[in-house]
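Much of our argument rests on the idea that a fold can be written as discrete symbols. Part of our work consisted of pairing the sequence of a single chain with a tokenised description of its backbone. We regard such an encoding as a compact summary of how the chain folds. The amino acid sequence and the backbone structure tokens for this protein are reproduced below.
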Amino acid sequence: MNEKPTVAVLIPCFNEEAAIAKVVADFRAALPEATVFVYDNNSTDRTAERAREAGAVVRREPRQGKGNVLRSMFRDIEADCYVLTDGDDTYPAEAAPGMVRLVLGERADMVVGDRLSSTYARENKRRFHNFGNELVRRLVNTVFRGNVPDIMTGYRAFSRDFAKSFPILSRGFEIETEMTIHALDKNFVVRSVPVAYRDRPAGGTSKLRTIPDGLRVLRTIANLSKNYKPLAFFSLLGLVALAGSAVLFVPVLAEYLRSGLVPHFPRLIVSGVLLTLSILFWITGLILDTVVQKHRQLFELHLHAIRRSGPRP
């Protein structure tokens, strides 16, 4: 007889004293079979105390950043389904049972709590965040051929396969973008559920910085594009270098055909260097693409090993 599937609610926290007790209580009520874990990320207020009083298992992560917290959570906690949420009471706990059912009953690997299709545009009070979310959504779905409606949501559910095979590299909140790209690249089953979003309650302070954090996310997308799709990435660089070479070479060629002379040798030399770089970019992309394909094969074998160590329900 199979044991009942286990569910873990994961709440990374940094100075969320104002809301954490309510968040813990709401998720304990919505998922009474789950264990709620709060990882305190060097809070200077009473976040840990409030969470413990509300019935959560409280642990500490000294390395600052949401990515560091999630890395420890996935390593430390064993469960058949993981529900990730924020400690600021912006996500509704009543959506969690449906997300868990998609993981345990319909074998989804990642369920995205989609804010953008519901109340985010109205409730979010931070300037430019709507524009930033839409930009990131379009970039990721275009580059990685996905259809994920909300790339940067902090409300998700995961299978054990995903949690135990996800190599977390990001340290900060750009972890949401990284996990979405990983899921699309490795062909995990991704589902989405529209969820209501509400802005932070009185007394809560956002940790996000619109411009610096937005640039970090864009840099993360560029780095992951290089790592996951090197042929496309280096082909684009090669195309840019080839275009630059052509722009410099065409006037030199025209002058040579007209007069039989090459009066601009420096321009010709730079054109040749750019052409050489273009060829090198394409060769680099081809080599790295072979490496990535081999890595995908090894990743599938790694998934089989994970399933043998703890089979899915």
In short: Residues 7-227 form a domain with the Spore Coat Polysaccharide Biosynthesis Protein SpsA; Chain A fold (CATH 3.90.550.10). Strands lie at 7-13, 35-40, 57-60, 81-84, 110-114, 156-159, 190-194. The chain has two domains: 7-227, 230-309. The CA atoms of residues 119 and 197 lie 5 Å apart.
